[in-house]
Amino acid sequence: MLNTNKTNADDLRIYQIIDANLDRAREGLRVLEDWARFGLGKEKYVERIKNFRQILGKNHLEVYKQSRNHIEDKCKGLTHQEQINRKTSEQIISSNSGRVQEALRVIEEFSRLHNNELSKIASKIRYEIYTIEIDLLSLSKCEKSEKILKKNDLYVITDQRDNLLEIIEEILIAGVRIIQHRFKTGTDKDHLQKAIQIKNLCKRYSSLFIVNDRLDIALASNADGIHLGQDDLDLKTARKLLGHSKIIGVSANNEIDISNALKEGCDYIGIGPVFETETKKNKKPIGIERIKTLTKDLNIPWFAIGGIKTSNISYLKSNGFKKVALVSQLMNSEDPKEEAIMILKELSHEN
Fold first, then answer.
1. Which burial class, exposed, middle or buried, applies to 84 when counting CB atoms under 10 A from its CB (0-12, 13-18, 19+)?
2. Which helix (H) or strand (E) holds 209?
3. What is the pTM for the complete model shown?
4. 274-307, pLDDT tens digit by residue?
5. Domain ranges for the chain
6. Which of 33, 126, 162, 310 shows a CA-CA span of 20 to 30 A to 272?
């Protein structure tokens, strides 16, 4: 409970500090709340942050508000260049989370002797904001990745070859924005080194970098996500280790696998093989009509894969297939950049 027995100058100064920082904390919380609401559509976080604002508002006592004009604030209006430099939603989230945390720390310290209850409240909320900041940043990063998945219709899967980096840069220049790196032979040291190089290339072109199968390589290279087959690590475990800032794709070709992938929260699905393919010689094509049936109610991005070439993309599009994944077509091309441009144009044409 607030001790109001004394009203000397020191008390007024402390009340003024608490008042100013309660305002700062609630303003910063409102920024986070609105991003959670309008930017991410995450009701759970909106409710938590709104509750913090209400608690602080309830404890913003009249004696604190009345202290505002008792002592002149000679630093009013001061700004910093960094406030102008905030260009992204992530920077806004971080700066306002910091604003809330700092303000709550000041409240915690200065209210300890006068209002111990408020001090405890400030401390509790401050520690929760540390976690919320990480969650909001992770969700924002994942949202960007999801937008790339939805917007882009060509997904390119690599294989191992000496000039792989040159091929990848060519197709990135052409406009490809999703790269999955697949590797089967070699040492983990070599795999990681190559993954980091590809990740840096993809970052330069604002493209997604996804690692096939290997969660450890995905984590170590800071990949944007991982693609899992039915015999790989289960999606729940992968999500627990990767967190929500990364995307997870799954290969599936039947109702049960697709249903399980959706329940476990995958971000996209690769479905195939559509046609016969040298990459998966032991897998029988499931065909156009079967894939139509499997995907008719899908509400997340899905990519047809397996034996897809420039020559059959028009046929796939006429059957309602909008997104495709390619391996050998571009990896074996004499001019991967030009071929990627042609495929992207073909995919963008309306039937």
1. exposed
2. strand 208-212
3. 0.75
4. 998 776 667 789 999 999 999 999 999 999 999 9
5. 9-143, 152-348
6. 162
Q: How many residues are there in the chain?
A: 351
CA distance 48 to 101: 15
- DSSP H helices, 152-187, are 164-174
Q: Which CATH number fits domain 152-348: 3.50.50.60, 3.10.105.10, 3.20.20.70, 1.25.40.10?
A: 3.20.20.70
CATH for the stretch 9-143? 1.20.1260
pLDDT in tens, 163-204: 999 999 999 999 999 999 998 888 999 999 999 999 999 999
From first CA to last CA, the distance across the chain in angstroms is 71
Task: Give the pLDDT band of residue 351 (cuts 50, 70, 90).
Answer: low
Q: Do domains 9-143 and 152-348 have the same CATH topology?
A: no
